[in-house]
Design goal:
3 domains; six-stranded antiparallel β-sheet; TATA-Binding Protein; Transferase(Phosphotransferase), domain 1; alpha+beta; 21 helices
Amino acid sequence: MTDATGPGSHPVPHLADTSPESWREANRRLLGKILSEFAFEQLVKPLDAGDGRYRVDLESGVSYTFAATHGALGSWRVDADSVTRGATGLLGNDTQTPAWDAQTFLTDALTTIGTDAATLAMYLTEVSATLAVDAARIEHGGATAAELRELDHAELECHMTGHPTLAANKGRIGFSATDVRAYAPEAQQRFPLQWIAVHRGLAEFRGTSDLSEAAVLERELGAETVAAFRARIADAGCDPDAYVWMPVHPWQWDHAVQVLFAGEIAQRRIIPLGDSPDEYLPQQSVRTMTNMTERDRYDVKLPLKIVNTLIWRGIPPHCTQGAPVTTQWLTGLLDNDPVLRDELRTVLLGEVASVTVRHPYLDRVPGVPYQHLETLGCIWRTSVSARKDEGERVRTFASLLHVDERGTAFAAELARASGLPAEEWLSRLFETVLTPVLHVLYTYGITFNPHGQNTLIGYDENDVPRRLFLKDFVDDVSVSHTPVPERGPEPDGYDHVLPRKHPVVIRQHVVDQLLIGHFRYLAPLVAEQLGVAEETFWKLARKAVTAYHERFPEKAERFAEFDMLADEFPRYPFNTDRLVITRYVDRALRHALRPNGTVPNPLV
């Protein structure tokens, strides 16, 4: 492995190299986030204590008091510096002391939030792992927002801080501390992938109509490596053409494949071939790799048998099987839309090829937990570098929420660098993000899951937003169950890959990922650092929606069906799902989130 390059580049240090002050600061920030998100989800219900302060009384006899403000969509913003704790004792809990320890709060709140000791023990494992990474980042300072502006999208990914809503956003249960320093994005370490050959009795290759298996191997490995791998299979006494070749994450090869598929390796049904000639950097999802040696080669999505941000991070076989046909259908449909193709120039980063490998024994057993069935497979996706224009800068939507250790928001840095007035830059941002997403929603009844990692923004040379890049089709695209003629013939054999959902649920993908999951956090950053009031922020966002409505009045029925201007939206509680609903129970299928209440729509 070699170090990545870029400002602030460093491996994640050992905890012994992190100061107590950095640990406390990481805790202080996380405690403020936990109180904010738990109050938003109504896991705790703060009482008004006057003068802008609120108090949370816990069943344990402990109370927490803090200053907070309210924002759009029912959000809470707790001032992390203001949090104090009072505990029942000889003097009662009227005497409050400064509070900074996130794990102490969680143990205090155990019965109040309705979880149990076993769940809390696992959750604290995720929280502690998150804190360790955050403390290391604080200790080393990291790159400034100005330095980050110069980075390419792959290097920039290594500097992000994780999911804005989930408190334990870097839990990665299964990774050791050494694994984090080797394979987590913040470690900024490049590494090769392990390639294996899997007998065709176990493995199946699929690709889009213009991609053969041989073409993918030639593109990803080059002729010299292909020849060397063929010789390795022949040396094992086997026919190279009897096998499907695929990459495996080196951690997965060591911790899962050699264990769960030991018999197949022993019987030469799986043959290790060696390392890839190229080195890769992990994206924020950890399991998706960007090729750093040959930037136009595919991104590779690989399963990891770890728990992170609510689920086991494998890849379901129906997703590997359905990826190419889903990409073929979507790109064929949307690339022929003149608005998307010619005017908006929206880029679809398709999942163009895949390998599916099912476990030879467990796949036949009903009810086996999904973590054991998603351990081997891969998906190749078109890379950003292969599709961006000369001079175009592409960054994830999530990067706009990043704040450097000097307190500068990356969004503010980009807006100032553009030379545009802040409101005009924001209007460009809203048009760039919302217009193509709404066009696909209203025209075709299709929604992506446009969260911060699946959505990327292309900027011009002045850092003005100009077009949208979308990815992750097979796992995150849904279609309305109502008939939509514009969709044409659908890949009906893959209903489980393209689930049919009620229009309200389809709309909620946009609401959750754009409004609640992103703009809810961006609005206060913009108000603080660019001087654009939150009310103005939401008016500009609304204008992007209504401008589309005014341009396409013939779609009025669709506007009503997928009503983005409804008075309120359902609230889906991510942290509650982990602590109270899903917990850490081993399930046969991934658990679907359920709403708990509603939030007012700031676009109204």
